[in-house]
Write the structure tokens for this entry.
Amino acid sequence: MSPQTEKKIKSSFAAQAMMATLGARLTHISKGKVEISAPILPGSLQQHGFAHAALTFAIGDSAAGYAALSIMSDDHEVLTSEMKIHLLAPARGDLLVARGRVIKPGRRLVIVQADVHARTGTDEVHVALLTGTMVPVPAM
Amino acid sequence: MSPQTEKKIKSSFAAQAMMATLGARLTHISKGKVEISAPILPGSLQQHGFAHAALTFAIGDSAAGYAALSIMSDDHEVLTSEMKIHLLAPARGDLLVARGRVIKPGRRLVIVQADVHARTGTDEVHVALLTGTMVPVPAM
Amino acid sequence: MSPQTEKKIKSSFAAQAMMATLGARLTHISKGKVEISAPILPGSLQQHGFAHAALTFAIGDSAAGYAALSIMSDDHEVLTSEMKIHLLAPARGDLLVARGRVIKPGRRLVIVQADVHARTGTDEVHVALLTGTMVPVPAM
Amino acid sequence: MSPQTEKKIKSSFAAQAMMATLGARLTHISKGKVEISAPILPGSLQQHGFAHAALTFAIGDSAAGYAALSIMSDDHEVLTSEMKIHLLAPARGDLLVARGRVIKPGRRLVIVQADVHARTGTDEVHVALLTGTMVPVPAM
């Protein structure tokens, strides 16, 4: 991946105010694979004290989207067209880690997937699987 | 819908810290239909200045979940098992309004849908469609 | 809808050998709405003697696809990119009826939905809900 | 996997008339993984001469369902509750091969995935990815 692509991803991530609200950070970028991590902040909980599905969705969708962006030419951005999330287990622990990857690249559509794990110490529990469609669009 | 069910939904909503973080409010409850509204706060934006998909997901998923809860016996809660969101248009405006409804009730699974509209003055634009599966579980 | 569009849909349907295998017929075409019906043939059953999910999927997906095609310019075709099906009840009866419609038209993507009902006499039971993404492509 | 479980899967498969209509065969069974293969019969084509999405769906959904069944106690069956299919490439070749696997087992729900490849000689092209929810039910 070119330094320019890496810079584009970092700039885009930094421009997402929601990522700051949720305390999310870009923790890995490579060609076709992006990782985003987030603490489970008090303001990100659901009614049982676990991480809210919206946090899991937020970082899973973004990790998948940036994985798609990492394989595109630098004059393009991506938009999520649709995303399905399976919630597999309660999201509790120190940190959520979302790892996005490209299943099928394409000029018109990029099919992506992301796994989200909840980490407690060195243990990881698989809490969500996302599968979706990203649409490349000319950069604004 | 019984006053007890309405109270259960309001208590559950109030216990979701994420809803407060996003500024979301319960704006309608009836049997099988629930509406949740949220302003587009500066901290809820994505990189182009529109509402983040995670905000749209958060209120759409919750509206659908509470629609399911509104038809259940009061000793049960619901968990989202899976949810698919289609993002139909940029989410910009004064307010997002999510309306959840039950497609198919069931003892083991409840199939739900939600539409999210972005409101600007009196205009509404359809920005998302969610379809998913809720699982009734005994209340904790 | 122009006679040419109607003709294009009928020709495309007639060219799908799978539709003949399943005994499916086009039973309604209008702008943005298409209905396909199929008997529950002995060769279309699953292990409990109900219609197989693949039959339900086949006519739901096609009805949704042709609904998308009905609103496109005549030099385009559509391909299904992704489709989610919820199976709501056992598919038993005289006939399955799939009704497709357009949720959101677009130049690059068309978001569609279809409902499938099982008809017994004049009764209809809602057996499936499909939601998906169609991609317009230049006609071959 | 016990011989009894293997027998249960083979019996269930044999009872699906649709599988015979499509020429599908069970080509591998192990604990949590099931493979189903099907030729692309003249009666299984869509309008461009490729395998119809309903064939791809049929064997992908069944492979995923039997993968779930392979890990259940022998007094249970499974039903598909919902399934999302991404169609990744035209399905052309000698044979379609669907490989189902379990993502997350559970007493109430089993989350599954399947990949479908089109084989031409020894080449395989990834033509579909399915992700869905299976529901265990007491055997009839």
The radius of gyration of chain C is 14 Å.
